Amino acid sequence: xxxxxSLLMMGLIFVLIVSLVACNNTSEKxxxxxxxxxxxxxxxxxxxxxxxGYSGPLSGPAAFYGERTLNGVKMAAEEINDAGxxxxxxxxxxLNIVSLDDKYLPNEAGANAKRLIQENKTPIIFTPHSGGxxxxxxxxxxxxxxxxxYTSEPKVSEVGNKLTVRIPPRYDGYLxxxxxxEMDKFGKKIAFLPTASQYGKDWSEKLKTHWEKEGGKVVYNxxxxxxxxxxFFTIVTNALKEKPDVLFIGGAxxxxxxxxxxxxxxxxxxxxIVMDQAKLDEMKVVTGSYDVLNGAIGVMPLVxxxxxxxxxxxxxxxxxxxETPGSEAGLNYISMYIFAEAMKAAxxxxxxxxxxxxxxxxxxxxxxxxxxxxxxxxxxxxxxxxLEVAAIEDGKIVPIKIK
Length: 403
Description:
The protein has helices at 2-30, 63-82, 106-120, 130-137, 140-143, 155-158, 175-185, 198-213, 233-240, 253-265, 280-287, 310-321, 327-346, 352-357, 359-365; strands at residues 34-37, 43-56, 86-88, 91-101, 124-127, 146-149, 164-166, 189-194, 217-221, 246-250, 271-274, 296-299, 377-379, 382-384, 389-393, 396-400. By secondary structure, the protein is of the alpha/beta class. Strands 1, 2, 3, 4, 5, 6 and 7 form a 7-stranded mixed β-sheet that branches. Strand 10, helix 10 and strand 11 (271-274) form a beta-alpha-beta unit. The longest helix is centred in the N-terminal third of the chain and has 29 residues, at 2-30.
């Protein structure tokens, strides 16, 4: 009798285990598809899910920057989903953003990308720093995923990686207008205090070459590791001892603004060349007003742009996130729309090579009402459009015409 009870108990346990496994398998299967409804509310088709990866700084000194790049991607994806998703090969798909924190570290970005590919099969992975892009370029062609490269570093497009999409314009287009403005307004002696990232080093090298070519002199050349340093008193003091007319500063907006503010507190009255990663309007949040940034030149703040889609985008972003959007949000927002259109043109949501081959179609087919930037071409691995430059004069944004 005891043996019979034991066998019955084991049988019940076995049935329970099989039932649980069946439930789990059903759950996993339905996690990537869901019934879609027609106009009458009848369930008619399955909607697939395309996972889009993101690896960027979501903690630490650059978190402000990383969160806003991610916000742009997420906002576009949610709008696309709310409008019915994308139809590719006769099937509907929604976009699902899977984000991981890399703390602004290239090795972490590489590890995150491997995880996103293995666990989520992401055909596209956004990363908002050149160090992360270079780390991903080591294996993205082999693993067959596109890098959504939010960096203006020209080298990411020059290495010949056929699955990299550079989102912002190349920064070397800013060298001449930035230099001309600051030399004309303040003088030819410059001190370098940019971010210590590879991106900062490359920017510095190109600016130094151009500045000296135009007859200028670099009187101090150093950099700041924003991941480790939060008080810039010593390095700014050392730079100002060389009596520069201009400071070259840049990196994420928040720490860059703190460098400018500290320079003013130490008596600096010259101009600032602001690397394009830092945004003037986002720096204003830290400095309290544009007055601290008088004499600065940088990229045009998104809210001041002439694009007709900006007012509606700004309103939607404010409603959603409770703040004014910057370039990070705007550029990643439109790029997500372009990627979605490229998938539609390619007839595939997972073939990275086919999607990459249709990036121009993605640019051409992007709706006008979401064009936060007026891109017209996809060329040499990146989006191309007119550069918009601005300076701060008398506490106000002033457009600067590029010659």
